[in-house]
Amino acid sequence: DAGVTQSPTHLIKTRGQHVTLRCSPISGHKSVSWYQQVLGQGPQFIFQYYEKEERGRGNFPDRFSARQFPNYSSELNVNALLLGDSALYLCASSHIPGQGYGYTFGSGTRLTVV
Amino acid sequence: DAKTTQPNSMESNEEEPVHLPCNHSTISGTDYIHWYRQLPSQGPEYVIHGLTSNVNNRMASLAIAEDRKSSTLILHRATLRDAAVYYCILRDANYGGSQGNLIFGKGTKLSVKP
Question: Which chain B residue has its CA at the smallest distance from A4's CA?
Answer without folding.
Answer: B43
